[in-house]
């Protein structure tokens, strides 16, 4: 029974996604796809921010890399000849299948993460926060200025609408499965050991730097996939599509769901997708003095984050997983939480 | 003067103090000895308010210190000179001293205490403008003690003042401790150098793995065969 | 194109930007030094200062000095309030908790401003005596340029005196070395931290007023990118180190302005990227910054 649970989960999720794809209208299909994309983003960000203890804010940057790569590689050559006449020939001719384009983008994002991670991860984890935010600015600026390839501020539109619920949930299952495996492997335990006590981990022979770098690169890889899915869902991208707002919202999903819990990230992603979706209607219908309340949904998210940090800093799930909570024993043995070395009760 | 009742202190899940009780009377030097990791530093850190006990009470001259913020404990006259000197390396000597007196209103008293510190440790007067980080280990320990004196202690908590110092400097430090006693400062002295500590102290407590194992007049403890065997090298 | 007058003008421009970055970087470094908090809401204090300054000039129609003083005091007080409500309860929690909180506060301010004031940029019109242009030896600049540099330098001198001479200043430096031991000196650390936040937010507010005055606009996101760049300045100078933040601010100002001034237009668009590449280079080559000696690698 326990062995087949993951398999059943896959069958059920893909079955429902297929059903949604054939039965639901466009709007609901989109919302469902966005949920899957956000789950990929949250679960992958959790790898650094939750498991290895390095706080990355670079998800929007890696999304942008994935989105632009996939957009440029899949756009029909005819369209490119018109929209991007100055493209180098090998790019202008490329018409790759969606999955290949997404993978190329993922490789690119992983490479960038590797190159950025080397200088930054030498330092304390929270330097990564600013450096990755800087990376987001760099990527945005490049997207804005590299006219021949990105079309600058005009962005790239008319992308093939490849992203369906089946694609989105397929990738989501891949992301969750891979990250679940990582977290429950020796590598994952190494990440958590590093998070708890870097020095002790190093003493036990964990290569601290390599472990943190791997977590960061892996997170970037899936962020890029999510970016590709996003691009082909919305079918138009501009540099400002990948702003700090997106990073912030993904951080909110991880924090509210519980950094250090994969099911927490999934729950956080679902909540943080549906809530703003509902609030967005409020923003435009509820108006003070005839002025729509733009920003309201973000304010609610920010307040939720503040409340979580004050009253439940471990988030909804803490470091537990859904099976631990529901099934008790089954998952409990696998729950990957080493004894937390709590800080001494300071004054 | 100081009465500690049944103190329990934890670091996360580590139970570091398992019911410590001790008394210090005005004018005494009380030594707290025990091997590394026994809980001596933890005891002092709890007394000065940087750690909070999960159980137990700390009374000082009728004030309950158990939940008082650390800076108010200092202002009542319980001054902690921490293990490992911990002077502010990027403040000058004089700034280190001034900082410790910053909460005092009696300017004349502060000036007099500064003179006294300089008299006890003339080298500090010479180096007053230097960064504390540039001082030698012995000089830093002198500064740490001088700094504690600037807070005008009535009860001084001294944590391993002789640790890692050259014998000459150790001599100086112990002479100063005696001088302080003559000035009426009460001292709770933590030392691994149990021999020296017992020679100087009126009474002593012996700690082991979070418990008080023995207590009594310092002389008696120094002659106790068990204590001798464990802490005085035979 | 590279006439002496052009270079001199760029020099003045760089001094301007550097002054503002320095003011913002000081606030980041002071707070980081004590709490190890990378305050992502710091740039938003600039934004609030800029809006307040605008309100003082237009709605209240007060003179220009009031448009500096009032934001400094009000936003300084707000900084203290935020520390009290949002950061103090998190003391002793993992460092990242405060960082996340600062992100949330940043979002709260940006979206609060969007909701109440709209995202439309608002023009900031300075009094005529400030926009008046002066010509000295062929170098043309506005009175405002002089005001920015003069005010920033004056504030930095005042801050330096405060930190070097007063006991509260000594206590601040002591805290940035070791908060626990500072408490053993009888210092009320909460008061020191409150003062640090007041200084930090107050200086950011002044910087925000100057920034919006220089560029003539304010919107809900005005301070965000300058706030991030000021962090780069603080890291260049050595984070936690106040003179380092000043130095880093000016270095960044010069690097950025001269990058734009001396590169062709296709390249100068990359200016923000250039700044953050600079950050990566500094982190790679000298992570402690120019004046920061401590906090080598991870503490
Ligand atoms: N910051 C800390 N975190 C966890 N355990 C600690 C900490 N400080 C001390 N301990 C533990 O508490 C016990 C008592 O330590 P301590 O009071 O420093 O002993 P002593 O000063 O007698 O050498 C030791 O077992 C030590 O390992
Ligand atoms: Mg000790």
Report what the structure shows.
The complex is a heterotrimer of chains A (347), B (234) and C (299). With 347 residues, chain A is mainly α. Helices cover 71% and strands 2% of the residues of chain A. In chain A, strands 1-2 form a two-stranded antiparallel sheet. The longest helix of chain A has 27 residues, at 26-52. Chain B is of the alpha/beta class. Chain B has helices at 40-47, 70-76, 93-100, 107-120, 122-126, 137-150, 167-182, 194-200, 218-223, 225-231; strands at residues 2-11, 14-24, 29-34, 55-60, 63-64, 78-81, 155-159, 186-191, 203-208, 211-217. A 6-stranded mixed sheet of chain B has the order 6-7-8-3-9-10, with helices on both faces. Chain B is globular and about 45 Å long. The two termini of chain B are 34 Å apart. In chain B, 46% of the residues are buried. Chain C is mainly α and 299 residues long. In chain C, strand 2 (133-136) and strand 3 form a beta hairpin. Residues 295-299 of chain C have low confidence and may be disordered. Chains in contact: A-B, A-C, B-C. The interface between A and C is large, with 50 and 56 residues. Bound molecules: adenosine-5'-diphosphate and magnesium ion (MG). Adenosine-5'-diphosphate binds at residues 11, 14, 16, 34, 36-42 of chain B. Residues 40-41, 83, 160 of chain B line the site of magnesium ion (MG).
Number of helices of chain A: 17
pLDDT averaged over residues of chain A: 85
Stretches of chain A where pLDDT is under 50 for at least 5 consecutive residues are 329-347
Biggest chain pair interface: A-C, 50 and 56 residues
Average the pLDDT over all residues of chain C and give the rounded result. Answer: 92
The proportion of residues forming helix of chain A, as a percent range, comes to over 70%
Residues in helices of chain C, as a percent range = over 70%
Estimate nothing, just give the exact number of structural domains of chain C: 1
Profile the largest sheet of chain C.
2 strands, antiparallel
Order of helices and strands of chain C: HHHHEHEEHHHHEHHHH
Task: Give the ordered list of helices and strands of chain A.
Answer: HHHHHHHHEHHHHEHHEEHHH
Count of discrete alpha- or pi-helical segments spanning 4 or more residues of chain C: 13
Rough shape of chain C? globular
Identify the quaternary structure here: heterotrimer
Largest sheet of chain A: 2 strands, antiparallel
Which ions and ligands are bound to the chains? Answer: adenosine-5'-diphosphate, magnesium ion
Q: Which regions of chain C are unreliable across 5 or more consecutive residues at pLDDT < 50?
A: 295-299
Count of strand segments of chain C: 4
Protein name (chain B): ABC transporter ATP-binding protein
Family (chain B): Belongs to the ABC transporter superfamily.
GO molecular function (chain B): ATP binding; ATP hydrolysis activity; branched-chain amino acid transmembrane transporter activity
Keywords (chain B): Amino-acid transport, ATP-binding, Nucleotide-binding, Transport
């Amino acid at each position: 029974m326990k062995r087949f649970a993951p398999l059943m989960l896959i069958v059920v999720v893909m079955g429902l996604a297929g059903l949604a794809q054939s039965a639901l209208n466009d709007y609901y299909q989109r919302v469902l796809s966005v949920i899957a994309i956000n789950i990929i983003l949250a679960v992958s960000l959790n790898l650094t921010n939750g498991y290895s203890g390095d706080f990355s804010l670079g998800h929007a940057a890696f999304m942008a890399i994935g989105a632009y790569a996939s957009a440029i590689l899949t756009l029909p050559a005819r369209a490119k000849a018109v929209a991007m006449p100055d493209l180098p020939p090998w790019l202008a001719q490329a018409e790759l299948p969606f999955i290949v384009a997404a993978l190329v983008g993922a490789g690119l994002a992983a490479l960038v993460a590797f190159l950025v991670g080397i200088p930054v991860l030498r330092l304390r984890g929270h330097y990564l926060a600013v450096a990755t935010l800087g990376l987001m600015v760099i990527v945005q600026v490049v997207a804005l200025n590299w006219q021949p390839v990105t079309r600058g501020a005009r962005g790239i539109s008319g992308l093939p609408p490849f992203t369906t619920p089946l694609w989105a949930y397929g990738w989501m299952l891949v992301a969750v499965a891979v990250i679940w495996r990582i977290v429950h492997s020796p590598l994952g335990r190494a990440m958590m050991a590093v998070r708890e006590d870097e020095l002790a981990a190093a003493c036990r022979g964990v290569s601290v730097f390599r472990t943190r770098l791997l977590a960061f690169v892996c997170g970037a890889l899936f962020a890029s996939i999510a970016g590709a899915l996003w691009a082909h869902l919305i079918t138009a991208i501009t540099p400002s599509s990948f702003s700090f707002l997106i990073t912030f919202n993904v951080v909110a999903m991880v924090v509210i769901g519980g950094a250090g819990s994969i099911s927490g990230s999934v729950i956080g992603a679902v909540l943080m997708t549906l809530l703003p979706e509902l609030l967005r209607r409020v923003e435009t219908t509820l108006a003070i003095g005839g002025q729509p309340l733009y920003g309201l949904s973000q304010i609610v998210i920010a307040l939720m984050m503040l409340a979580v940090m004050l009253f439940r800093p471990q988030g909804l799930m803490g470091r537990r997983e859904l099976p631990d909570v529901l099934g008790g024993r089954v998952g409990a043995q696998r729950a990957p939480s080493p004894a937390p070395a709590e800080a001494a009760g300071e004054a | 003067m100081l009465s500690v009742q049944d103190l329990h202190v934890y670091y996360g899940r580590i139970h570091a103090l398992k019911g410590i009780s001790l008394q210090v009377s005005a004018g005494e030097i009380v030594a707290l000895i025990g091997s590394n990791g026994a809980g001596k530093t933890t005891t002092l850190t709890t007394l000065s308010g940087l750690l909070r006990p999960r159980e137990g009470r700390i009374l000082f001259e009728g004030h309950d210190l158990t939940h008082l913020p650390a800076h108010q404990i200092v202002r009542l006259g319980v001054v902690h000179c921490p293990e490992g000197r911990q002077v502010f390396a990027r403040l000058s000597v004089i700034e280190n001293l001034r900082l410790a007196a910053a909460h005092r209103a009696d300017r004349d008293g502060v000036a007099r205490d500064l003179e006294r510190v300089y008299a006890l440790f003339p080298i500090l007067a010479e180096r007053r403008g230097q960064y504390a980080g540039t001082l030698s280990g012995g000089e830093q320990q002198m500064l740490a003690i001088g700094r504690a004196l600037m807070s005008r202690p009535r009860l001084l908590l001294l944590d391993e003042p002789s640790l890692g110092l050259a014998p000459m400097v150790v001599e100086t430090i112990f002479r100063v401790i005696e001088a302080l006693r003559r000035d009426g400062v009460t001292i709770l002295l933590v030392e691994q150098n149990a021999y020296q500590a017992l020679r100087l102290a009126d009474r002593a407590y012996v700690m082991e793995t979070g418990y008080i194992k023995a207590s009594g007049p310092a002389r008696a403890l120094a002659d106790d065969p068990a204590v001798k065997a464990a802490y005085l090298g035979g | 194109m590279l006439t002496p007058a052009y270079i001199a003008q760029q020099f003045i421009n760089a001094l301007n930007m550097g002054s503002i970055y320095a003011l913002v970087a000081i606030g980041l470094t002071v707070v980081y030094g004590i709490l190890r908090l990378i305050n992502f809401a710091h740039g938003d204090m600039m934004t609030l200062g800029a809006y307040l300054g605008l309100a003082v000039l237009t709605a209240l129609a007060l003179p220009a000095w009031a448009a500096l003083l009032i934001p400094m005091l009000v936003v300084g007080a707000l900084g203290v309030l935020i520390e009290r409500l949002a950061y103090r309860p998190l003391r002793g929690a993992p460092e990242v908790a405060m960082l996340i909180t600062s992100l949330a506060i940043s979002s709260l301010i940006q979206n609060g401003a969007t909701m109440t004031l709209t995202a439309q940029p608002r023009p900031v019109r300075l009094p005529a005596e400030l926009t008046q242009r002066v010509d000295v030896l062929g170098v043309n600049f506005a009175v405002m340029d002089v005001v920015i540099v003069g005010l920033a330098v004056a504030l930095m001198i005042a801050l330096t005196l405060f930190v070097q001479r007063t006991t509260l200043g000594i206590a601040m430096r002591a805290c940035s070395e070791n908060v626990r031991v500072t408490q053993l000196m009888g210092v009320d650390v909460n008061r020191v931290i409150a003062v640090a936040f007041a200084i930090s937010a107050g200086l950011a507010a002044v910087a925000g007023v100057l920034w919006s005055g220089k560029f003539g606009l304010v919107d809900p996101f005005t301070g965000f990118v300058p706030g991030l760049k000021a962090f780069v300045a603080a890291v260049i100078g050595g984070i936690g180190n106040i003179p380092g933040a000043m130095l880093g601010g000016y270095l960044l100002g010069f690097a950025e302005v001269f990058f734009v001034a001396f590169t062709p237009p296709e390249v100068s668009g990359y200016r923000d990227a250039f700044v953050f590449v600079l950050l990566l280079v500094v982190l790679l080559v000298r992570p402690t910054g120019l004046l920061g000696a401590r906090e080598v690698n991870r503490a």
